[in-house]
Write a structure and sequence with these properties.
The structure is a single chain. By secondary structure, this protein is an all-beta fold. Strands 2, 4, 5, 6, 9, 10 and 11 form a 7-stranded mixed beta sheet that branches. The protein is elongated.
Amino acid sequence: QVHLVESGGGLVQAGGSLRLSCAASGSISLANIMGWYRQAPGKQREEIATISSSLIANYGNSGKGHFTISRNNTENEATIYLQATSLKPEDTGVYYCRLNNLFGRGDYWGQGIQVTVSS
């Protein structure tokens, strides 16, 4: 089992910045991919960015431009960050952290954290 703890959300004005964190602990495989996903009101969940255990980052269409994902690995834990700049009201939504242990070893989601960008 993997435990994911998200933090850093909240209310921010348009044009502002914030940083989300997700700390993972438990049965983390050596080969895994962690990522941030967003679900806006009335829309499907979409990928913002992912980063592998070997620190290869990829960005979804909604993540390109003003999001940066990073990662810190320790012996028993992994933490990812999502730095967001120049936020827009359309960036509002619930942001979810995900850890996917590759080769079928488990796929885990955090509870989600609200980000609201006011105009």
